[in-house]
Amino acid sequence: MPGHRSIAEAEKLAAARLGGIPVRHDQMAVVANIYRAASAVRQHLENSVLRGVDLTWTAFVVLWVIWIWGESETRHVAEEAGISKGTLTGVARTLEGRGLVQRADHPTDGRLVLLSLTDEGQELMQRLFPAFNEEEAFVTGQLSDADCRTVADGLRRVVLQVEENGEQRRQDLLGGAAPAPRRSGRRKA
Amino acid sequence: MPGHRSIAEAEKLAAARLGGIPVRHDQMAVVANIYRAASAVRQHLENSVLRGVDLTWTAFVVLWVIWIWGESETRHVAEEAGISKGTLTGVARTLEGRGLVQRADHPTDGRLVLLSLTDEGQELMQRLFPAFNEEEAFVTGQLSDADCRTVADGLRRVVLQVEENGEQRRQDLLGGAAPAPRRSGRRKA
DNA sequence: TCAGAATTGTTCGGATCCAAATCATACGGT
DNA sequence: ACCGTATGATTTGGATCCGAACAATTCTGA
């Protein structure tokens, strides 16, 4: 099982292949390992605690957000869960069909939809979260509490950087030009 | 765009909701931020350098792996790219159709398929990687080189923990019972 | 030698996922 | 009241994505 073992070598190969163009090695390693860790953690949790209750990672995250924050507008749930509004519509539909989530109209604003957990959803999360948190502790088992805080803080700064300066950065890169539309996706009727 | 701002609060809410059951806060924060950072980074890169050349994140990673390692067996590419074999088949088909990747039979083992970049694929990566690396530097812009090494090292330990002990851990959790099959997926004919 | 076990890539069912288009409602100014 | 704009959620097209089933090939041992 290669992968992580070969990052240093991969960087050298990349540098050689670029013929002397400088490479930001440390920054590249952060991005590579963020994604590698995210995949590993997600896979482990899906195949341990989530599989048994037939929940995908995304479905669990959505449940978790609603569980923690209580009845919420869908746009906030999508934001917190890190998925698009359109994706949330589908996931919420699935969860609603399984009796874990219910939707309700906003009392004053007819555009909004509120999501909340059903009793069954509440019970599921109460039972599931401790097991989930246990595995979070497992995957970080090689890190001390202080290490965890350091890593989490570093990651938080990455998230902040993208959220606060990403939009500006993208505009600068594209030079004001409209971003190329996705090749896939809906077309005008 | 809340999210990161509320993690501490979310943890308190979670603890309250669990009614005194201890929560591993630091570990929870690491997992939450790993995933948040992965989403943010992926989104930024897709919407900056990748969109213009009509590549998804996964397609780029696959190209990168083949570019760095040269002609490779598909199983190794899937492993390095962090996707399943089945997914790679589809992605490789897409990239082959766009003339960026070519496949070849293994000279001695008829089961294997080798993937390599076409000339066009080579040129694309040569042009694309510097821009990609530039954005890797941007998203980590709030971290010093030393910070980057620290964070990358911590993440590497998470990956290692899952890779080296994850399988055993899952078996222990399930108590030897066969893992529940996915609800979705192919059925016996 | 040759039948069963192992390994590899592909097919396939079902669910996600994004972003553009679209539909629906609320709000602004006149 | 009315109309244009802003802001919601949903629909839709295309591409992923996983993992089980499957087909093809190689390996193993008696």
Overview of this structure, please?
Chain A is 65% helix and 6% strand. Chain A is mostly helical. A three-stranded antiparallel beta sheet of chain A has the order 1-3-2. The model of chain A is unreliable at 1-5 (pLDDT under 50). At the A-B interface, helix 1, helix 2, helix 3, helix 4 and helix 6 of A face helix 1, helix 2, helix 3, helix 4 and helix 6 of B. Chain A binds a DNA duplex (30 and 30 nucleotides) through residues 46, 56, 58-59, 73-75, 83-91, 94, 106, 109-113, 181-189.
Give me the secondary-structure topology.
2 copies of one chain form a homodimer.
Chain A: H1 7-18, H2 25-50, H3 57-69, E1 72-73, H4 74-81, H5 85-97, E2 101-105, E3 113-117, H6 119-139, H7 145-174
Antiparallel strand pairs in A: 1-3, 2-3
Helix pairs in contact in A: 2-6, 3-4, 3-5, 4-5
The first copy, chain A, binds a DNA duplex (30 and 30 nucleotides) through residues 46, 56, 58-59, 73-75, 83-91, 94, 106, 109-113, 181-189.
